[in-house]
Design a protein that fits this description.
By secondary structure, the chain is an alpha/beta fold. Helix content is 28%, strand content 29%. The protein has helices at 2-5, 22-35, 48-56, 111-115, 127-138, 152-160, 208-218, and strands spanning 11-17, 39-45, 62-66, 75-90, 108-110, 119-122, 147-149, 165-169, 182-188, 193-201.
Length: 229
């Protein structure tokens, strides 16, 4: 498909993306636009329900969303990466850390211990928050976050104050405005991960731009565009 379309494909590719997957977009658009410079791309943050609605109603061409949590009907999917979760907080500058913050020498933290911290989390309407709540429930606890937001950047800003800890997918750390003394701890007991990938409506014919992106992803090998750090 790529060899047939290269240099001749025109149009616009509309992509709906869950907010936690926004860092994945440039991993796709960079090689795609290198092969198809006459195609413009419009990517915007959407909830998983909005992506489902947008695909059903021809408002977007592709979605990037969770594949194994609240699966979407009438869709075909291709995995891109697995999402892993960490707690991020600012380490205290003084030698005796606060009792309500993690050990600065730790590398992991349990979901149960994380539940006892002052938390800033995404809002309950976000699928990522529902995943986090399920992990807390599996650990036998139910935290009450002091701050909720629908913007990942806002979690970073709250962590920056030194008062709150946030829980985010590890691959988004690079796009958050975190302080130099930020610490990211892998969440364990249980260890949780979820598959994220491309979804398209299960119908034919697919637009040429959509077919081209699917073909590109098919050449990327193994559905892991992020390596776990």
């Amino acid at each position: 498909v790529q060899s047939e379309m290269r240099g001749s494909l025109h149009g616009r590719l509309r992509i709906g993306v869950i907010p936690t997957a926004l860092p994945a977009v440039s991993r796709l658009t960079l090689p795609f636009c290198g092969s198809y410079p006459d195609v413009s791309i419009a990517a915007r943050a959407m909830s998983s329900l909005e992506i489902q609605h947008g695909l059903d109603n021809f408002e977007i061409d592709l979605g990037i969303t969770y594949l194994d949590n609240d699966p979407m009907p009438r869709m075909k999917s291709t995995p891109l990466y697995r999402e892993y979760y960490c707690l991020v907080h600012a380490i205290a500058d003084h030698p005796n850390p606060r009792a309500d913050h993690p050990n600065p020498r730790a590398t992991t933290i349990s979901w149960r211990d994380a539940a006892a911290l002052p938390l800033c989390l995404l809002t309950p309407d976000m699928q990522n928050r529902r995943i986090i709540d399920a992990a807390f429930a599996a650990a036998g606890c139910r935290p009450t976050p002091q701050v909720e937001t629908n913007d990942l950047a806002d979690i970073g800003l709250h962590v920056k104050t030194g008062k709150w800890a946030g829980i985010v997918p590890r691959h988004v750390l690079d796009i958050l405005d975190l302080p130099a003394n930020a610490q990211a701890l892998d969440l364990v007991a249980p260890e949780v991960s979820h598959s994220v990938g491309l979804v398209v409506a299960d119908r034919e014919p697919q637009p040429p731009t959509t077919k081209a992106m699917l073909a590109l992803v098919g050449t990327m090998g193994g559905g892991d565009i992020f390596a776990r750090e």
